[in-house]
Amino acid sequence: QVQPVQSGGGSVQPGGSLRLSCTAPGFTSDRCDMDWYRQAAGRQREWVSRITRTGSTKYAASVKGRFTISEDTDKDTVYLQMNRLKPEDTAMYTCKTSYSCGNLWGQGSQVTVSS
Length: 115
Known about the structure:
Blueprint: E1 5-8, E2 10-12, E3 18-23, E4 34-39, E5 46-51, E6 57-59, E7 67-72, E8 77-82, E9 91-97, E10 109-113
Parallel strand pairs: 2-10
Antiparallel strand pairs: 1-3, 3-8, 4-5, 4-9, 5-6, 7-8, 9-10
């Protein structure tokens, strides 16, 4: 099992968009679920979204309707498209494979939303 590798993130103004990527070798063949979490400075880690092995998706209430999780099975990659970003979305975002796939964490991607 290999640690997922993340890309994306950065700084954006309120109302803007960013996309995060998480590539996890074996994600598709091992039929893993994938979660996104975030942790803002001084706050506890918060679950953001999940895509299951069957492709179903779930979202935290705070991001539902603004964030979209998706997958590219050919690339073993999960994406988190973040639209209409707010300052309160500022956090370190990290992907994680499901327990059955080793509970592996990505390295994290900083997202900063500020004017």
